[in-house]
Amino acid sequence: MNNHEQVAKNHWYRNADIPGVPGPERDLVGYGETLPKVVWNEDGAKVAVNIVVNYEEGSELTFAMGDGCNDGMYELPFDVEGQRDLAKESMYEYGSRAGIWRMFRTFDRLEVPATIFGAAVALERNPEVVERMKSRGDDLVGHGYRWIDHYHYSREEERELIALALESFKEMGLKTSGWYCREMSTNTRELLVENGNFLFDSDYYGDDLPFWTRMNGKDHLVVPYSLVTNDCRYIMGTGFGSPSDFVDYCARALDQLLLDVEHDGCGRMLSIGIHPRITGHPARIHALAEFISYAKAQEGVVFMRRTDIATTFAQQVPPPKHSRF
């Protein structure tokens, strides 16, 4: 037996996933070179840009709500332990008090639609935001009952969290056919299909285009999201040092997608993820407006709601046929 064969016999050395591990099967191939042909409107738009507002403020983990900790993802790398962190709370409150309204004004001025990734409790605590969403016609993608990591919860608990969110949305007069967790679990997608109220989820970062999956004998659409063209990079890890970095990054992403379409004729989508407590600040919203203006000036670009991207794709690219044998 040679050295390679000896190594291959060790239990940790594998060239495939272990059968029966919970969660969806990995797909490392995707579309490959054979991309589906999709255009986004009657004018033949090449790239659909989706502005995603993550509305979470008021549903994050806090001592004030009895969680025994204070959430992260805010401006400073400090943490107050064992008690409320009023500084952190106020940074979140900036998003719901000021940031979201600056966003709505910017979207109105530039005449672009938005998608709200909304946590139910956050929306419950600010009814005026809900009414503004309705009057603007922005679509809702469920972002959980609260802004909490779903992988912390059992299958039964997660099923209840999804149901609670849907009931809350219904009571507020909101509808959704899409879902995006803070952090999904290995059960999330299966539970969404089991629930039966969802056309798609966005708990995936591995592609530039929607694609169909098969879950428990049912077709289910995935509309990928992005943490690359996302304002979380202002405050997390190596990312944007200034608002100009955000503009440059998003503009270059759009330019490349347009080049991709020129090469193969297949439409693309671009998700721009923002948060009221982050991009809602003046300098950063100015950068977002600059990118929107740039994108609107490019031929073949259309701004779309995520639900419309999902339905447009589904109309042009139906689920693959599955053999009974």
Describe this structure in words.
By secondary structure, this protein is of the alpha/beta class. It has a single domain (47-316), classed as Alpha-Beta Barrel (TIM Barrel), CATH 3.20.20.370. It has helices spanning 3-9, 86-110, 120-124, 127-136, 155-171, 188-195, 243-264, 282-296, 306-316, and strands at 47-55, 115-118, 139-142, 176-179, 200-201, 211-215, 218-222, 268-274, 301-303. Strands 1, 2, 3, 4, 5, 6, 7, 8 and 9 form a nine-stranded mixed β-sheet that branches. Strand 1, helix 2 and strand 2 form a beta-alpha-beta unit. The model has no long low-confidence stretch (mean pLDDT 93). InterPro entries: Glyco_hydro/deAcase_b/a-brl, NODB_dom. This is Peptidoglycan/xylan/chitin deacetylase (PgdA/CDA1 family).
Series of secondary-structure elements, N-terminal to C-terminal: HEHEHHEHEHEEEHEHEH
By secondary-structure content and strand pairing, the structural class works out as alpha/beta
Oligomeric status: single chain
Helix share bin: 25-40%
Q: Largest sheet, described in full?
A: 9 strands, mixed
Average pLDDT for all residues:
93
Radius of gyration: 21 Å
Q: What would CATH call the class?
A: Alpha Beta
Total E-strand runs: 9
CATH topology: TIM Barrel
Number of spatially distinct domains: 1
Indicate the CATH architecture. Answer: Alpha-Beta Barrel
Number of helical segments with 4 or more residues: 9
Shape: globular
CATH superfamily descriptor: Glycoside hydrolase/deacetylase
The portion of residues forming beta strands comes to 5-15%
Q: Determine the N-to-C terminus distance.
A: 40 Å
Low-confidence stretches: none
